[in-house]
Amino acid sequence: MNIAFIAHDRKKEEMVNFVIAYEYVFKDHTLYSTGTTGTRIMEQTGLSIHRFMSGPLGGDQQIGAMVAQNEMDLIIFLRDPLMAQPHEPDIIALLRLCDVQGIPVATNIATGELLVHSLERGEFGWRELVHKYKPGDPI
């Protein structure tokens, strides 16, 4: 599975702790992240993460491009609901793309926990079917 991590500044520590707690689940997947979030996770874990640019510099849009191509399977996006974000239109566009493509996205720890436990139990098999029968691919 392709999994992306995004965290606003005041949520980065929470994201790092979350990933540390579930490192044993994430280690078997291909991981992506926006810039600083990915760096902080890699500094605290043994995980390898493909880092995109920082969110305000286009990292959210880079992950969004993967979503638009149906190449992302799960996004953990710890948003800070109490702080205005200068790139709010990019954030809304990313969440909209997730809805269009049916990509599970968690915007808080509670939902993140549910999705990771579901991933751990193997309940994301439907995403494998999406990849197998991707439009335009020969069957």
Automatic annotation (TrEMBL):
Transmembrane segments: none annotated. GO terms for molecular function: methylglyoxal synthase activity. Belongs to the methylglyoxal synthase family. CDD domains: MGS. Its EC number is 4.2.3.3. Keywords: Lyase. Pfam families: MGS. Residues 1-139 form the MGS-like domain. This is Methylglyoxal synthase. Catalyzes the formation of methylglyoxal from dihydroxyacetone phosphate. The active site is at D60 (proton donor/acceptor). The keyword Lyase applies. It catalyses: dihydroxyacetone phosphate = methylglyoxal + phosphate. Substrate binds at H8, K12, T34, G35, T36, T37, S54, G55, H87. The keyword Lyase applies. SMART domains: MGS.
